[in-house]
Write a structure and sequence with these properties.
heterodimer, A: about 100 residues, alpha+beta, three-stranded antiparallel sheet, 3 strands, B: about 280 residues, mainly alpha, two-stranded antiparallel sheet, 2 strands
Chain lengths: ~100, ~280
């Protein structure tokens, strides 16, 4: 028997305007508008909410967990991590 | 303002909300998908919350406390309509019933916003945004299931045929209604019925569902003065079937008896218990 489940939509929640939309979970729905309705119930009922996004899960382009080399950081890269200058006062405090 | 008539109006609204809220809660754990399980449970809580708010106004008008009124009255003292009493049945019936009810509530609350009664104005403004979401929810389902597949269409049409006469019972008149209309408390159930039919006919028709209605012979807007000007004619409809009345006069279905037996059982064990 074929899969009768509806599409999965990933849900992104924004608590106030200007904040980033944060992934909070997923819902099943027949289409995008129904997904928004379902997302409202599952994720915006208790949290304050300014906006919701839903994105069909198969529209998300993702990396493969198997492909570890994609994120490889094997050599020393501390030079990429500027921490700012250490001022005289700070330097003193650090020396103590 | 005649308090008794206003009390009757507030009570019938509260009773409708309480009973449909109870019916909606029966889907908790049983809805076709988990998302709807949560949605319906949440709507049930909203409806019960609204009933509490209306019962509180009823108490302020000199009625009993919300607990007494909800849990110790006999079925004959309830004035809910038959539509909300009917068992939840299948998903199609639940959706159709909820849609017909939500639309009526929207129409009712919008009318209350213009009321000469301050408590009605204030509470309806608080409740309306939640009800508009309920309506969006049930209408979205009607629009999709109405003509999704032959099976979904068959079930939805069957549910609509079943629910429609009882839905007309939402607009049954009650004692003192004319006085309230004269006092500007609300426009009266016949006016609300006309507004409700306008919305319901349009949504059902575009969802592929048929209703037993006919167009009103006296179509407003078609006066001799504007025969050339193509003004948008607001169609008005009348129901072409026998409404299921009785609820507003305390005559109920057997389903309400069963529901109240279950709902009031615990309270009746010890009405003075402190929770």
């Amino acid at each position: 028997m074929s899969d009768t489940q509806w599409d999965v939509y990933e849900v992104f929640h924004q608590s106030t305007r200007g904040e980033p939309h944060v992934h909070v979970g997923s819902v099943h729905a027949s289409d995008g508008q129904m997904a928004l309705l379902m997302a409202r119930e599952q994720f915006a009922r208790r949290l304050t909410c300014a906006s919701l996004w839903v994105v069909r899960a198969d529209h998300v382009i993702a990396t493969d967990y198997q492909d570890e080399s994609f994120f490889a950081q094997n050599t020393d890269k501390t030079y990429r991590e500027p921490r700012g200058f250490v001022g005289p006062l700070k330097g003193k405090a650090n020396a103590d | 303002m005649p308090t008794e008539a206003l009390k009757s109006l507030v009570l019938l609204v509260a009773d409708d909300e309480l009973i449909i809220g109870h019916r909606d809660s029966e889907w908790t754990g049983h809805a076709p998908i988990i998302e709807e399980d949560i949605a319906f449970s949440s709507i049930a809580q909203d409806e019960l919350g609204h009933s509490l708010a209306w019962y509180t106004i009823y108490e302020q008008l000199g009625g009993g406390t919300p607990d007494e009124v909800a849990f110790s009255r006999s079925p004959q003292a309830f004035t809910c309509c038959h539509l909300v009493e009917h068992p939840k049945d299948d998903w199609a019936y639940t959706i159709v019933r909820q849609y017909l009810y939500d639309t009526a509530e929207k129409v009712r609350l919008e009318a209350f916003q213009q009321s000469s009664s301050a408590p009605l104005r204030e509470l309806s403004s608080k409740i309306l945004p939640e009800e508009q979401y309920h309506l969006l929810h049930s209408r979205s389902w009607v629009e999709r299931l109405g003509d999704a597949t032959p099976e979904s269409h068959r079930r939805m049409q069957l549910a609509l045929d079943e629910a429609f006469p009882a839905a007309l019972g939402m607009f049954e008149s009650f004692d003192g209604e004319q006085q309230l209309t004269a006092d500007g408390v609300f426009p009266g159930h016949q006016v609300l019925l006309g507004q409700w039919l306008g919305e319901v006919v349009s949504v059902c028709t575009r969802s592929g569902l048929k209703l037993p209605v006919r167009q009103n012979g006296d179509v407003r807007g078609q006066t001799s003065a504007d025969t050339t000007a193509k003004r948008t004619v607001k169609r008005s409809w009348v129901a072409d079937c026998v409404p299921e009345y009785g609820g507003r006069r305390g005559k109920h279905t057997e389903y309400l008896m069963e529901l109240l037996d279950a709902m009031q059982m615990v309270y009746r064990l010890d009405p003075n218990a402190r929770w």
